[in-house]
Amino acid sequence: MSKNYSDLNLIVRSLLPENQETPISFLPEDHLQTDLFFRRNHFTYPSLTNSSYWLPIVGAVHTPILFSFKDLVQMPSHTVKVVLECAGNKRNLFKPKVFGEQWEKGALSMGRWKGVSLKTLLNVTGLKHDATEVVAEGYDYGNRTDIDHTFSYMRSLPIEKALHPDTIIAYAYNDKPIPFKHGFPLRLIVPQWYAMASVKWIKQIRIINKKFHGPFQSIDYVYYPQKESDAGAYPVTYNRVNSIIQQPLNREVLDTGLHIIKGIAWTGKGTISKVELSVDHGETWIRAVIDRPYNANYEWINWSYEWEISKKGEYTLMAKATDSFNRTQPPEAMWNRKGYGYNAIDTVVIKIE
Ligand SMILES: Nc1nc2c(c(=O)[nH]1)N[C@H]1C(S)=C(S)[C@@H](COP(=O)(O)O)O[C@H]1N2
Ligand SMILES: [Mo]
């Protein structure tokens, strides 16, 4: 692969609001270059003012507090390296097809987010004994096709997840201020959950003592297993175990000889314990070599395999990751009406000639 990445661009899925996808097959290993990371927005970008640098924490707390940006930066910091995967990543692969942004495999990012644990802030405000959920509201808002008034982007977290020390209010990304499109100046980062939980441009944190029912919680980001009814619906939370074959490309034509099959794998629970590969449409499986980074908890891992091939023909290559909770990628993704959480065994078809 060329060392010059200046030709790498995002792939446009829509422009208003802006939704663009990472060129995931070409992403250099462990490269955290922000401008190659996907952008997923429900509304047009918010306009920020001086008030955007203040963070109110209100609701079921003992002392509501307005934290300044400076207060936050001066508190003990916490850094997490995190995969953020859009719940709609790979939606384009569902059969039958579903409506929504037709993401292929690149609604995915990994970076180092630095900030203050939400828990540290909630220790300062104190929590009322009946507090059950923490609602984060973004500065962005607009109309939805299904409701006739405007909404801001808002999501809640159960109190246990909100109090996990790795759930942070971030103010830096890869050692720089957060880029505007990714949530400047403050963004909630929720490791292990699909990225809809990581609310950008935080305007306010409200602690509540009942169930939150905003549309981005109870209409969107819900798995609906049925096409015609809401029976069996349940919320989207933790990332499923997943992987991508980055190389070779789907439908690539190669010659005989040695080829490196490589890709990434990640999970929302535990760590990746193995990645298996098949070069014969799933008949036999071999172990890929995992290049394990230190503290792989919230990161994707890179894997590879040296494939020596002398016989010409068509080959179906498959990658299947398993995590330390023994969750493994299924042969078929669980179909759901809004197309979330696609994690079937990753497949590319190539030809050797
Ligand atoms: N305020 C706000 N936060 C948001 C969103 C949004 O539209 N508004 N989109 C969510 C979704 S669905 C995803 S996948 C991620 C995308 O983050 P990125 O644009 O930084 O890649 O942000 C999440 N946080
Ligand atoms: Mo998303």
Question: Overview of this structure, please?
Answer:
The chain is mainly beta and 353 residues long. The chain contains four helices and 24 strands. It folds into two domains: 5-220, Sulfite Oxidase, Chain A, domain 2 (Alpha-Beta Complex), CATH 3.90.420; 242-352, Immunoglobulin-like (Sandwich), CATH 2.60.40.650. It has helices at 69-74, 118-125, 159-162, 215-218; strands at residues 11-14, 19-21, 39-40, 54-59, 65-68, 78-85, 108-117, 133-144, 147-158, 168-173, 176-177, 187-189, 202-208, 222-223, 234-235, 242-247, 253-254, 257-266, 272-278, 286-287, 289-291, 301-309, 313-323, 346-352. A five-stranded mixed beta sheet has the order 5-4-13-8-9. Strands 6, 7, 10, 11 and 12 form a five-stranded antiparallel beta sheet that branches. It has a five-stranded mixed beta sheet with strand order 17-24-23-19-20, with no helix packed on it. Bound molecules: ligand MTE and molybdenum atom. Molybdenum atom (MO) is lined by residues 40, 86-88, 195-196. It comes from Virgibacillus tibetensis. This is Sulfite oxidase. Residues 240-351 form the Moybdenum cofactor oxidoreductase dimerisation domain. Keywords: Metal-binding, Molybdenum, Oxidoreductase.
Number of helices: 4
Q: In percent terms, what proportion of residues is strand?
A: 35-45%
> Which fold does the CATH topology of the largest domain refer to?
Sulfite Oxidase, Chain A, domain 2
CATH homology group of the largest domain = Oxidoreductase, molybdopterin-binding domain
Unreliable runs: none
Tell me the number of structural domains: 2
Largest beta-sheet details: 5 strands, mixed
Q: What level of helicity do the residues show?
A: under 10%
Domain Oxidoreductase molybdopterin-binding: 42-214
Protein name: Sulfite oxidase
Organism: Virgibacillus tibetensis
Pfam family, one: Mo-co_dimer
